[in-house]
Amino acid sequence: MGALQLIGQALRLDPVAFESLIGTQQALRVSLWVVFFAGLSSALGQSIVLFINRVKPNRFVASLIISALLYVVGYLFWSLSIWLVASTLFQREQQFLLTLQAVGLAYSPQLFGFFILTPYAGSFIAGLLSVWNLLAILIASQVVFDLTLPQAAACSGIGWLLLQVVQRTVGRPLLRVSDWFRNKVAGTPLTVHSVRELLRPEEGENRAGR
Predict the structure, then answer these.
(1) Would you tell me how many other CB atoms lie within 10 Å of the CB of residue 195?
(2) pLDDT higher than threshold 50 for residue 207
(3) Which of 38, 102, 132, 133 could join 140 in a cystine, given CB atoms 3.0 to 4.6 angstroms apart?
(4) Cα(67)–Cα(190) distance, rounded to whole angstroms?
(5) 3-state helix, strand, coil in the chain (%, to 5)
(6) Would you say 38 and 107 are in contact if contact means Cβ atoms under 8 Å apart?
(7) CB 129 within 8 A of CB 110
(8) Buried b / exposed e across 55-94, counting CB within 10 Å, b at 16+?
(9) 192: which residues sit within 8 A by CB, 6+ positions away?
(10) At 183, is the pLDDT very low, low, confident or very high (cuts 50, 70, 90)?
(11) Mean pLDDT across the stretch 111-125?
(12) What pLDDT score was predicted for residue 204?
């Protein structure tokens, strides 16, 4: 089954997509490319931030690529949190590699992340894509760990909460390093890092004051 067909099935939340992918030779490669391009698309959706910060064209492209790579890092951590919850809470022994493969394909809805740039509807689209992504991850968790729907929901939800806790505690130094790296690549201090900060300027001020 081709990559585009797998992505199409994943977008329809079809479990067959994940069943067909995991364990195949192309699985990890397809999943990583899906996540990378999803990250690139999301970065394009946030590109107004780079325009506001007056980032030069060559650094603009580099910033998009770096954002996509950092997006991949986030996917790795979320996959790890899901795997840990499934292993400890539901005693489902499974290879972490298979979790990476399934969760990566579940990022297919985020390939439409560039639509966040849509005037007035951007926030709604971002929320819709997040829910779509979460539902796909729920299906992926079901397939990989042979869970019931409630178990998969608990696994995905607790995994997401675990990721949020890590980001807001031990992950804060990593966030600072990430911000520093983005500034370095952009060639200028990014006074605004996200569209959310445009809507809530105090967040940008808090970052600048750190």
Answers:
(1) 19
(2) no
(3) 102
(4) 13
(5) 80, 0, 20
(6) yes
(7) yes
(8) beeebbebbbebbbebbbeebebbbbbbbbbbbeebebee
(9) 49, 52, 53, 198, 204
(10) low
(11) 85
(12) 45
Length, in residues, of the chain:
210
Residue with tokens 């795997």: 83
Extract the tokens encoding 207.
Answer: 């970052």
Tokens of 144: 């990989």
Of residues 24, 66, 75, the one with CA closest to residue 43: 66
- Lowest average pLDDT, out of 40-44, 180-184, 199-203, goes to 199-203
Q: What is the pLDDT of residues 135-172, one digit of tens each?
A: 999 999 999 998 888 888 888 888 788 777 776 775 56
Q: What is the pLDDT of residues 26-54, one digit of tens each?
A: 999 999 999 999 999 988 887 776 666 67
Rounded CA gap, 115 and 123, in Å? Answer: 10
Residue 163 backbone phi and psi in degrees, to 5: -65, -40
> Cα(7)–Cα(84) distance, rounded to whole angstroms?
26
Find the Cα–Cα–Cα–Cα dihedral 197, 203, 205, 210, rounded to 10°: -130
Amino acid at 5: Q
Q: Give the integer Cα–Cα distance in Å for 65 and 33.
A: 13
Q: Which of 210, 209, 203 is nearest to 49 (CA)?
A: 203
At 158 the pLDDT is 84
Does residue 188 have a pLDDT over 70? no
